[in-house]
From TrEMBL:
Occurrences of domain Integrase zinc-binding (ranges): 406-456
Top-level taxonomic group: Eukaryota
Organism: Aldrovandia affinis
InterPro entries: DNA/RNA_pol_sf, Integrase_H2C2
A Pfam family: Integrase_H2C2
Coiled coil: none
Record protein name field: Integrase zinc-binding domain-containing protein
Length: 457
């Protein structure tokens, strides 16, 4: 076997490599993540056996060896990953998590150690995860068959399974823990990383989220340790932590950072609470769009930092590291906001349409014959026969009637058309969007407009 010879040769040549490899395997076995296949089960012949090759990979930053099980490796045209189903994407929206992370006065970060290893594989499936190893790492001994008892990092099904297990744990323990704890488990985790609102005040200088909300150039961002380690005081004794806001002195009400109403962090039991509040915090469509665009850019950069394969980093580096926001960034932000708002207001319709079922007869969108485009955005469909809706409105993005975002878009259009009245506004609106009762919504924007009043006076 070539794999066996190569590994044995490498061990002979590099004793440090051999020692680290052995230590990794010892740990996997000692923790029960894997076990030796019992003698009587070695000859399983129902076709439910697969052997996975493994090799060592050095973690660049930590300079630590990790043994990688190659689930994509193929034998006679077959591979484990090709047979496994990926499962649904159960990860919470990173945008939502980041927005919530930014909302609290203090943020707590935590993670689950070796998350996939915490989820057991069904006993009758474990022989699909067999591997060969020398007992005690001693290459003079014959290789023996071992098998994983838990999920592997390289298997395509592992992320979905681990996310499901994590969320199910929350559901199974509903009666044992508070709503806040369960909600954090359900919504605060991005894979194995938890971001939680904390309860202490972090000064603007110390707050990693603050950096992002102001916008910054990429290089300082990447070298900022605050984002990776959190504020410096977290590593000190609790007594040295900053005091609560009552000790912060008087804050001027004219301070541009102060909003008229205090923002309280008490929306932990609504899944979308944090995102909705953030969207409502902005009174200008352009500012909201830019803020979300920055968040999406941060998300990409954070993901990029986590990427293990060089290939992906090289390919996306030039684009993602561009400084400032591009037109594409803003378009993407617009899409993210629209998706969020449509999900909030049209959830039943979206659920049906995603399944390929038409919306219910009593839906307010029924007569628009709504469809979903490739990006999952709800638009006016192609078969509208209702005389009230001209054919030219086909494919317009449907906006919810009383949503804050719809108002921001309408107000933005009002400014774009130079405060020139309702008809102009609606014509511009209908180049892209469909808003029910747009007439009365437009009136509500024009009526309080200070500029328009002054013009008429
Ligand atoms: Zn106006």
């Amino acid at each position: 076997m070539r794999w066996q010879c190569n590994l044995a040769r490498r061990f002979k040549k590099d004793s440090a490599y051999a020692a680290e490899y052995k230590a990794f395997m010892d740990n996997v076995l000692a923790k029960g993540y894997a076990e030796r296949v019992p003698q009587e089960q070695l000859c399983r012949n129902d076709g439910h056996v697969w052997h996975i090759p493994h090799h060592g990979v050095y973690h660049k930053r930590k300079n630590k060896l990790r043994v990688v099980f190659d689930c994509s490796s193929s034998y006679r045209g077959q591979s484990l990953n090709a047979e496994l189903l990926q499962g649904p994407d159960l990860a919470s929206s990173l945008l939502g998590i980041l927005l919530r992370f930014c909302q609290g006065r203090i943020a707590i970060m935590a993670d689950i150690e070796a998350m996939y290893y915490q989820v057991q594989v069904r006993e009758d499936h474990r022989d699909f995860l067999r591997f060969l190893w020398w007992p005690g790492g001693d290459t003079t001994k014959p290789l023996e068959a071992y098998r994983m008892n838990v999920h592997l990092f390289g298997a395509v099904s592992s992320p979905s399974i681990a996310n499901f297990a994590l969320k199910q744990t929350a559901y199974d323990n509903t009666d044992k823990y508070s709503m806040e704890v369960l909600d954090i488990i359900k919504h605060g985790f991005y894979v194995d990383d938890c971001l939680k609102d904390q309860w202490r005040h972090v000064s603007s200088k110390e707050n990693p989220a603050d950096t992002a909300s102001h916008g910054l150039h990429i290089e300082p961002f990447l070298s900022s340790t605050k984002w990776l380690r959190g504020p410096d005081f977290l590593s000190k004794e609790e007594a040295e932590w900053p005091k609560g806001p009552e000790d912060l002195g008087h804050i001027r009400s004219s301070d541009p950072e102060v909003k008229g109403n205090t923002i309280t962090v008490n929306c932990l039991n609504t899944s979308n609470g944090a995102t909705c509040k953030l969207l409502e915090y902005y009174s200008s469509w352009k500012k909201l769009q830019r803020a979300v665009a920055w968040w999406l850019k941060c998300k990409k950069l954070l993901l990029l930092r986590c990427q293990k394969t060089k290939v992906i980093v090289t390919r996306s580096k030039s684009k993602e590291r561009q400084q400032g926001l591009t037109v594409e960034d803003l378009d993407e932000a617009e899409k993210a906001i629209l998706l969020h708002e449509q999900q909030r207001y049209f959830e039943p319709e979206l659920t049906l349409l995603k399944k390929g079922t038409p919306v219910k007869a009593d839906s307010s969108l029924r007569k628009l014959d709504p469809i979903l485009n490739d990006e999952g955005i709800l638009r006016i469909g192609g078969r509208i026969s209702n005389a009230a809706i001209p054919v030219s409105l086909k494919n317009l993005i449907i906006l919810p009637r009383d949503s804050h975002v719809s108002k921001l878009i309408l107000r933005d259009i009002h400014q774009q058309v130079g405060h020139s009245g309702r008809n102009h506004m609606l014509a511009r609106l209908n180049q892209k969007f469909w808003l029910p009762s747009a007439n009365s919504s437009a009136r509500k924007i024009i009526k309080p407009c200070v500029f328009c009043r002054r013009m008429q006076a």
